[in-house]
Design goal:
single chain; 9-stranded mixed β-sheet; 18% strand; 5-stranded mixed β-sheet; Creatine Kinase, Chain A, domain 2; GS catalytic domain-containing protein; Ubiquitin-like (UB roll); alpha+beta; Gln_synth_cat_dom; 2 domains; 14 helices; 14 strands; 480 residues
């Protein structure tokens, strides 16, 4: 789905940019990019792309180079250029940067003109194209929870990332009073992102000091991933203007709830009809042949999709929870509503996958909410994992792995009746990279992606294992 005024031809593009001297282009993941002169930009559009250093796939978020054995970018190939292809459908303007025109790019191998295995937009396009071949359109929505601090990048560095000042004090979820504090910033987040064509559905305080929650407007999956990634960019940029630093770190405080990145998904047919919805008559009585009472108000395809996500969930965890810190959010229990097991349930926020359907929602709004990801997830990889697994479930007509969470007991986790999710990035990556992992199936991610992305996660684990933390010093310095 393109932006409202996206150009369809080079002539339309030139008309849009007639008053501009430069254009900003960005790559996804940790959002990076640059300004290009308008002439250079137009040349790249008409010429099929431009060279962009492959090191962006060869280093981590702090520009530390990955090991040589990673596939795309390494010392052996001299960090050669990739072909960056500008997607005109992503056109928008950045209101807080003098209305600068802005486009996203995707990456191709310059030798084959094929998408590279780890390009976030390319990975999601693969899943969306697979859905289209089955007669489906992928739709999604993302919700972010995020802490905010009265800090700047310089002040947090000066404080060595300790004793940071929250934007507000106390636990004030859905507070109308707390939004009166920093009111201009709170409203700028809503209004400026709308101008940036990242529309929001909901925006409010969440429980925790300085915590907001923002729900992005439901749309097609690739558009949603773009919007979700660009919302982080927008929030951080707008925050800088107000001396505020939003953080999408999953668990910045050990004794407080973490920050989720919940994802809502559904399928539609080529005409826009909701695939997950039951018929009007079944919306009153429930679908015959449903696995249980909690799935009787979703379609058979939705039940297979749900089973597919549950079946592969443990094998794709690094794409949903990609950081060391993210696994500290998944503590389970009702206190933090952060599920850590393969569970599902009708309208249950304690489950890993929440079924949203009649009678609490109209049939047309029927969807699944995947509650495992944190705010630190990549929306491209997370949505790719969810849709690929769900489509696999439909193809294989998979059965649900067990009863809904409402029929389970706390001891079922200890006895093995309920499958637990990996408890660390290291365990999750090892599971994803094993030979018979569902993630390695070509219809999910395939070997090239798993080997590359898994290698980046093992790099993260290595850095963590080598780090000496304040906790260790405080615990062992005197008494060990």
């Amino acid at each position: 789905m393109a932006t409202k005024f996206a150009p369809n031809t080079v002539e339309e593009l030139k008309e849009l940019l007639k008053d501009d001297a430069k254009v900003k282009v960005a790559v996804d993941g940790v959002l990076r990019g640059k300004y290009m002169s308008k002439d250079k930009f137009l040349s790249a559009v008409t010429g099929g792309g431009f060279g962009f250093c492959s090191v962006i796939f060869g280093w981590d978020m702090h520009d530390l180079v990955y090991p040589n054995e990673l596939l795309i970018s390494n010392r052996a190939n001299g960090y050669k250029d990739l072909l960056a292809q500008i997607d005109l459908a992503t056109y928008r303007r950045i209101p807080w940067e003098n209305n600068a025109p802005f486009f996203l790019v995707s990456f191709l191998d310059p030798d084959t003109n094929e998408p590279i295995c780890a390009d976030p937009r390319g990975v999601l396009k693969k899943a969306v194209d697979r859905a289209a071949s089955m007669g489906y359109q992928c739709y999604a929505g993302c919700e972010y929870e995020y802490f905010q601090f009265q800090e700047t990048p310089q002040s947090v560095a000066d404080k060595k990332f300790t004793n940071l000042q929250p934007l507000t004090s106390g636990m004030h979820g859905y507070s109308l009073l707390r939004t009166q504090l920093n009111n201009t910033y709170f409203n700028d987040l809503f209004d400026e992102t709308a101008k940036f064509e990242v529309p929001l559905e909901g925006h409010h305080t969440e429980t925790g000091p300085g915590v907001y929650e923002t729900a992005l407007a439901y749309t097609s999956a690739l558009r949603m991933a773009d919007n979700a990634q660009l919302f982080k960019f927008a929030a951080k940029s707008i925050g800088m203007k107000h001396g505020i630093m939003p953080s999408f770190m999953a668990k910045p405080w050990g004794n407080l709830p973490g920050c989720s990145g919940h994802i809502h998904v559904s399928l539609r047919d080529a005409n826009g009809k909701p695939i997950f919805a039951v018929s009007e008559s079944d919306a009153k009585t429930g679908r015959q042949g449903a696995a249980n009472q909690e799935t009787k108000f979703i379609s058979q395809e939705a039940e297979w999709f749900l089973a597919g996500v549950l079946d592969g969930l443990p094998d794709v965890m690094p794409t949903l929870v990609p950081t060391i810190n993210g696994y500290k959010r998944l503590v389970g229990g009702e206190a933090f509503w952060a599920p850590n097991a393969v569970t599902y349930g009708y309208d249950s926020r304690a489950a890993s996958i929440r079924i949203i359907s009649p009678p609490s929602a109209p049939p047309s709004a029927t969807r699944l909410e995947i509650r495992v990801p944190g705010a630190d997830m990549s929306p491209y990889f997370a949505l790719s994992a969810i849709f690929s697994l769900g489509l696999r479930g439909i193809e294989k007509k998979l059965s649900l792995p067990g009863p809904p969470i409402s029929q389970l007991k706390p001891e079922d986790k200890a006895t093995g009746k309920v499958q637990m999710l990996p408890v660390s990035l290291e365990a999750a990556t090892e599971r994803m990279m094993r030979k018979d992992s569902v993630a390695r199936e070509e219809s999910v991610f395939g070997d090239d992606f798993v080997d590359h992305f898994g290698g980046t996660r093992l790099h993260e684990v290595k850095l963590w294992n080598e780090a000496v933390t304040n906790w260790e010093v405080e615990r062992y310095l005197e008494l060990a």
